[in-house]
Amino acid sequence: MTQLDSDFTRRQFPAFDSPLLSAGAFFENAGGSFPCRQVVDRLTRFYTHRKVQPYAPYEASRLAGEEMDEARTRLAALMGVASDEVSFGPSTSANTFVLAKALRRHIADKGGAVVVTDQDHEANSGAWRRLAEDGIEIREWRIDPATGHLDPQTLRPLLADGRVRLVAFPHCSNVVAAINPVAAICAMAREAGALSCVDGVSYAPHGLPDIPALGADIYLFSAYKTYGPHQGIMVIRREAGEALPNQGHFFNGGSLYKRFTPAGPDHAQIAACAGMADYIDAAHAHHFPGSGAGPLARSRAVHDLMRAHETAILQPLLDFLADRNDLRLIGPRDAATRAPTVALVHDREGEKLAMDLAPHGIMAGGGDFYAVRPLRAMGVDPDHGVLRLSFVHYTTKEEVGRLVEALGRVL
Questions:
Q1: How far apart are the C-alpha atoms of 75 and 29, rounded to whole Å?
Q2: Which of 234, 185, 230, 190 is CA-nearest to residue 209?
Q3: Is 270 left (phi over 0), alpha (psi -120 to 50) or beta?
Q4: Which residues contact residue 74 at a Cβ distance below 8 angstroms, ignoring those fewer than 6 apart?
Q5: Rounded distance, CA 90 to CA 263, Å?
Q6: Alpha-carbon distance 122 to 128, whole Å?
Q7: Other CB atoms within 10 Å distance of the CB of residue 183
Q8: How many CA atoms within 13 Å lie on the side-chain side of 264?
Q9: Tens digit of each residue's pLDDT, the chain (411 residues)
Q10: Can you name the residues that pair with 113 across neighbouring β-strands?
């Protein structure tokens, strides 16, 4: 089996050339990953040579528009969807807010209900919960308080009466990190006549979503956590997007990718998102030379490459933590069933533990990470918080070893 080439991978990220960032080991990737070189180069080029109103006939403007279109087209192909089913917005939180506004009337007119979870980051929970202000029933799909697990069987009773119009849930939580069976959950929602809205913010950094395989009606993630600029990316399948009321300018209502972006887009950052596709294609070409695979197949191969590397270097950390009785590990102990985002509860506050690790060259974070609901559901005081250690595929086995050694000293 092809293994990830860490030397090649790290050469794609300018952060590893920075004395400030390369001096330590970065374990706060769930808050935002390093941007790849291709994104940085495209953003620099746009601001240097294309920073004009796009889509006019003069050369700089024409190229600006082409680069924006390229980002949408290539990312869509890597995710297995049509180009106009991909929309950009200022953040995933903002994109979710706009979607909730679109669904508000759609659901209320049909006397419907919405299912949310208490495993979510607040961005994919709060906006939907606010629909209760308009009389829409909110049903909470609750996690197991001991494990943080979302059991699909406990979703069935919430869907039984056929009134649910939307099921909003995470691909994986930003503190629990267990990978939910997205395809099965989306199928359950579809059978009940409901749309599925998947928060992929905490999963997409570990491999772009395969939308046809997942079956999600709506899938959202953040480019800045997926090696890109600060943009929210949302996939809205055509049938769902065209059924919802337009939230953009009235004259843009006929364009699917403009229907849910009421604010003017950030031209430079959208164009720079094509660098994410550049990086995935470069990783595929390096590891699978001459394969001739199409975009979705390339994305799937790179996804599997990333996940295999992450799983292999995560398990020793989980084993080290499992052997200790002075802390609580949130989420599964099997690396294959979770993302490499590890939240720990200790007698010391999460932020204090992060401060204690910093002199050892470990860059990590502590707090509630906007995951107040899941932490409370699992009996963790959000004010006390957790230490969160998160990495992606550019992290090395040696860095995880350094983290384990530092944790041993600090704990």
A1: 21
A2: 234
A3: alpha
A4: 274, 277, 295
A5: 9
A6: 10
A7: 15
A8: 4
A9: 699 999 999 999 999 999 999 999 999 999 999 999 999 999 999 999 999 999 999 999 999 999 999 999 999 999 999 999 999 999 999 999 999 999 998 887 777 999 999 999 998 899 999 999 989 999 999 999 999 999 999 999 999 999 999 999 999 999 999 999 999 999 999 999 999 999 999 999 999 999 999 999 999 999 999 999 999 999 999 999 999 999 999 999 999 999 999 987 899 999 999 999 999 999 999 999 999 999 999 999 999 999 999 999 999 999 999 999 999 999 999 999 999 999 999 999 999 999 999 999 999 999 999 999 999 999 999 999 999 999 999 999 999 999 999 999 999
A10: 137, 164
- The identity of residue 336, as a single letter, is A
In residues, how long is the chain?
A: 411
